[in-house]
Amino acid sequence: MANREPEKYNYTPLADAVMCLEQKVNFYGVVAEYEQPKPTRGRDYLCTMTVIDMSYNSPGLRVLYFAPDVDMMPRVKDLGDVIRFHRVQMKSHADAPQAIGNPKKGSSFVLLRGCEGDDYVPYHKSHSNFTMEASDRNIVGLLRMWASSHPIDTLAGTNKYMKQIKDVNVDSYFDLCCKILFVNDQSAEHSVIIYVWDGTDASPACLNPLEQSENGDPGQDLWSSKELAVPVDVMRGFPALGTVLPLVPFGMPEDDFGPQLPLAGDWVKLRNIGCRVRKGLYEGVTYHGSKIGILSPSAQAVQNCERAYEERLTSEALRLPHWCPKPPQSMLVTGYDHCKLSTLREVLTYPQVTYKFRCMVRVMATWPSDVLDFCVPHDGSAAQPKDHLEQGDFVYVVRLTLEDPTARLHAFLYGQDAVEFFVGYPAANLRRQGDTVGALKRKVDRLLGVSEHGPPNPPWVTCCLKSYYLDKEHPQETRRYRVFGTRFPG
């Protein structure tokens, strides 16, 4: 018996395919958008993508590919790769054409790299048997040549929902082009938290006075919320500038991120996500309709983010928090204005345990929160009743909770550094110093941005910090921070 000849396929340009409603077609296309496979409400998985070619490059053809197993789904490596579909059904949805593929109905695919000069061997395919004739290689070559002169990027200013982290707010849903920095799938509160970054600074969010600390220590509560289970050794791999936005699932099934989470280092497009504020910090929120799509490192949107970040790194003015006054204004004064500013993330991750920094921050809380308790007896006089101690028997011990767009940390005001800070108000038994208490309270209220007309909104201030350790046997684990060389005149 003669061998059966390979089936011959005719491939339809996309401009013609979109006219073939309720028919099955074969076509090649360049992947312009791609979303990770995710479970449907039924038993199948769904992968969606947008493909384009020379005949139909805007808005492109939406392809929905269903399969009973995730291993049967197209797994696109990069936008700009070439995909071939066989026997997909052309439909219309909301007056827009779309292609529906399902291997149970005979659909199949092959994926090839999109760069000129690459070979013609698929890196992913739905079947072990496939054809790749001279005519196929010719189509792939033409698509690669065309795509090389037509950058694949649907994000560069064309999407009205696209935002940067600096523009997020709680009033709307939005899309975000960002880089995955860390994926925490061991979070106690959520099944998974993804930490994303685009090089910009989130705007300061006012603290909600209804979010009161349960233990009476607002600074400790704020500190706990900022950490969100990111260890310092992980944070050391983060960029120095720019807010890292935690992305948490909310009203979304545990596996709706897809069977394969994005990896740290991936650039992605997040679609239809929301935002909320907790403890004065923004959190991205994903819902059932949220989607994660891959982005090629060569995409214009990715290159724009990376280029803008490189400019920030090399510019003293751009290193400043995006939302602080320009030029910087500060009610605090330091003697180290010649030193460059460091972000709190740089402070927390600095490899040398003992070091000095100058920072632009906001003071979010003090502990004790009552000015009356800012001074405590010296160790040698602690046994005496407070009311009988003299002025010289006291020392300032105050913990400040500091924030900038990159981190929060605790820094202590102590001893002579605190006396220098509270210009003109030496440490004393404040319960016997009514005038001093009133003056200190006015200073602290200004520092915390206390207002009679709304929630606190702390101003931006410069201060100097020095790091130290409590145990020389465990310097990293016992590292602490103190304010020094900083004065609060007036």
TrEMBL record:
Localisation: Chromosome, Telomere
Keyword terms: Chromosome, DNA-binding, Telomere
Cross-referenced Pfam families: OB_POT1A, POT1
Main localisation: nucleus
Gene Ontology CC terms, in alphabetical order: nuclear telomere cap complex
Entry's Gene Ontology molecular function annotations: G-rich strand telomeric DNA binding; telomerase inhibitor activity
SUPFAM superfamilies reported for this sequence: Nucleic acid-binding proteins
GO terms, biological process: regulation of telomere maintenance via telomerase; telomere capping
Family annotation (PANTHER family): PROTECTION OF TELOMERES 1 (PTHR14513), PROTECTION OF TELOMERES PROTEIN 1 (PTHR14513:SF0)
Protein's name in the database: Telomeric single stranded DNA binding POT1/Cdc13 domain-containing protein
